[in-house]
Amino acid sequence: MIKKTKRAAIKTHQWLTEKRIHWLVYGILLACAVSIIVQLVYPAGRALPNAHIDGIQVGGFDRKTTIDALQNTYADSEISLQIPGKKPEKIRLPTTGIVLNYTDSANKTLDYQLWQRLIPFSFVYSMGKTYESTRYIDNEVFSEFAVKVAEKCVSTPVNAAIEIKNGQVSLRSAKDGQKCDAKKLQTSLLANTLDDTTLKAPVTPIEPALSNDTVKTQFTHAKQVVDGGVTLGSPAEQWKVPREVVAGWLTVVSENNTLKLTINSEAVKKYLNEYQGKTHIQPGQTTAHLLDGVEVRRETGAAGQGIDTDVTVKRITDGLLAAKVPDVIWTQLAVLPSVVVYDRQYSQSDAGVQALIEQWDRDNAGRYGILVRDLSGRGLNAALNADRDFITASTYKQFLAYAVMHKIEVGQMSFDAGTSTGLSVRGCIDEMILHSTNPCATALMEMADWGYVNDYIHGQFPSTILNNGASSDNEKHSTVRDEITFQTRLNAGTLEMNGDNHAYLLGLLKRQIYRGGIPRGVPGVTVANKVGFYNGYKHDIAIIYGPRGTYQLGIMSYGGADWRFEDLSRRVAELMNR
Description:
elongated; 29 strands; 5-stranded antiparallel β-sheet; Beta-lactamase; 3-stranded mixed β-sheet; alpha+beta
């Protein structure tokens, strides 16, 4: 009974198993049929569900919709340009020169055959597929983009260097530079997809000419010299040179992509000259007494002792650059001659005045013409380049005033006549001398006639030319001798005009406003003078009414200055008024 029951159960199980298999097969066939039906009825000309192009969802889109989606996304898309060592920069993708073939890209999502519809579940297998867009490079746009990237990308390599500062020797490490290659950039750009928002610019490293290894030997030597110290010696003593001083002696120069350690000879010499150790004996002072430029006696001081810098610098240089710095570098001693100072005295004579102005000329920069003329009968006269030609600057205005007043005296002009400036002739003479006003000088020259003024003055003062057109440089010219001679005659009343006009013009010169040169050198003394300054030319022509007699001092120069004129004026006054 039990056996029959078991057999029945087994048959039942077999029947159920067979039924399950049949249902499973039926289910699979049904699913395949449903899949094929769905695939067959899926609208043609549309991308498969959940399809993507470069990360853009285009599932179910037809060709036009897909193209529109690509266009909209591409037109507004940005990528981050990353250049090694630089700050990332956002740029619009179209500006890189990348161009998408929208139609071809869209066709990729629609490119499935009818037989694929007959294979069950083929759509499920293809769903979510990501396609890469078809793209190419617009060379003209890309070239412009590549140039901008190259400019931002490039960096100059930094050579290794030895730095010596504050008594310390340090190595400044070398650093590679970089540049961007246009071809590699184009390849990288083409490989970039729209869903990848970062474009890494490929760079090519540029090695520095001087690497750390290249300068290692020089660095090690410089460090040993500074850290090890330098000892100098003489028969009287030995001493350690301060670390910071030794560091200041070392210099590093670059030659043919190598560094060379050298010694700054001037720095070593400066230290040796200033060293005041047991070896040093200060030399005495020798005083040379000169009268009118000629030495009349000498007081000789004792010689001293110091370091022969030329020989010792050579020894120090050789020692510091040697493979091993000597324990002691020996200095060479030398006799130091006494220091010569000059006591210059000048006699109250022609020779004294002449020696004074010649020495002053040697001591002062510039090109000068100087004349000293005594008007008090003492015979204290001197001249240096008195006939040297100079552009007159405004000193010509005293000549012009004289020519105009002569014309007034002969009835060809009038003090009361108006000028083109709005002032009368007298008003313009005042302005021209007191304030050196140029428009008044021009107006008076035109009224008196340029040719007449030049001929009248040149006839009495042969080195003076006031007609610009008669000179190769279109300027007015004179010499300090002509200028001083004019004032000599003005002071003596021997010009070709009456006494009142002599006094009038002389009074204007005494009241003119420019007093920074000769007048300042003789404070409290009446001075009649005319100055001129123009394009580097600086002049001062003066009559000095000194306490011990009247004299003249004229200075014409190129490169002179008021403070220099003041100094010469003071020196001449001291001699004249002794």
